[in-house]
Design the sequence.
């Protein structure tokens, strides 16, 4: 019994390590791109990460293959998950705060929900729609819509665009999961993303003297190149496989929380009361969408078992780190 409990604690510790690494990435990347081109920083990351991803794919999966019938979907996945997504995300981060980036970026499952419902890929019950609506309402509060402080923040809009684009990756990627292993699929999609980053990344690097970069930028770059994806994705995949996508996905809600807390000492961030309320409402809505995934509000009486039932692991959307 003690061994089982210890293993479960180790799995939860592993998941906590992953979400903490994701949360810190927004802060450290923000600090790095204040001293170099955002697109140059991202492109350089992918030049380092992509070969390492292939190495990990061969290490864990033993192969990297491509089936001809999957080429269009692979290209679309790479476009949504690592190409267009990175343009939106890094430029959004450059124009907003790490906390706003983590919070708004966490809406990717909401957009995925809308996509699978519109395309008819999955029956989405009204309980999940209610949670999604509350999450969006929380973002409106966070942006000051009900406090007389509403403003069109270009950074927040770009991050919102990244969440919407990543929903395409979730929908398309689910079609490939049965034929490709996780690290194998990751390496292939990162290759497409790297090629897409060439037009924006090369000019950014040309205007950056890498030799003059201090260690305050270099160690942040090393972190961004290794931890958010390469040293966390295998851990996340393993832990999710052991405890289930339903339980594991709850940990993703901690990313904006940890980012917000860590940004206070690391970036001297301050938050207005309405921003904290909006963030709490948004996170509560996303959690509700998760818990009420199998509940239809057409019934007045909701069985307790239904409320606690997690979403189907096969349709559980995945939110990859930045």
Sequence:
């Amino acid at each position: 019994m003690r061994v089982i409990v210890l293993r479960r604690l180790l799995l939860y510790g592993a998941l906590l390590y992953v979400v903490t690494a994701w949360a810190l990435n927004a802060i450290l990347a923000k600090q790095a791109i204040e001293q170099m081109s955002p697109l140059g920083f991202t492109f350089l990351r992918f030049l380092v990460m992509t070969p390492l991803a292939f190495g990990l794919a061969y290490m864990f999966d033993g192969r990297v293959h491509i089936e001809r019938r999957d080429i269009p979907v692979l290209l679309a996945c790479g476009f949504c998950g690592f190409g267009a997504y990175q343009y939106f995300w890094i430029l959004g981060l450059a124009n907003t705060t790490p906390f706003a980036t983590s919070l708004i970026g966490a809406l990717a499952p909401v957009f995925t929900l809308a996509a699978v419902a519109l395309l008819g890929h999955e029956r989405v019950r009204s309980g999940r729609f209610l949670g999604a609506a509350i999450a969006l309402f929380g973002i409106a509060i966070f942006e000051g819509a009900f406090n007389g402080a509403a403003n069109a923040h270009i950074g927040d809009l770009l991050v919102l665009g990244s969440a919407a684009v990543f929903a395409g990756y979730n929908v398309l990627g689910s079609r490939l999961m049965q034929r490709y292993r996780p690290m194998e699929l990751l390496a292939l999609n990162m290759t497409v993303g790297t090629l897409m980053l060439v037009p924006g990344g090369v000019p950014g690097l040309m205007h950056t003297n890498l030799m003059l970069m201090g260690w305050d930028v270099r160690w942040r770059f090393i972190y961004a190149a290794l931890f958010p994806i390469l040293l966390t994705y295998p851990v996340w995949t393993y832990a999710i496989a052991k405890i289930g996508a339903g339980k594991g996905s709850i940990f993703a809600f901690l990313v904006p929380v940890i980012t917000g807390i860590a940004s206070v000492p690391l970036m001297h961030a301050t938050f207005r009361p309405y921003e904290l309320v909006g963030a709490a409402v948004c996170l509560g809505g996303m959690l509700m969408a998760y818990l009420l995934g199998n509940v239809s509000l057409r019934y007045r009486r909701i069985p307790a078992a239904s409320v606690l039932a997690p979403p189907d692991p096969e349709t559980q959307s995945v939110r990859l780190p930045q």
Summary: Residues 299-317 have pLDDT under 50 and may be disordered. The chain is about 70% helix and 0% strand. Residues 2-308 form one domain.
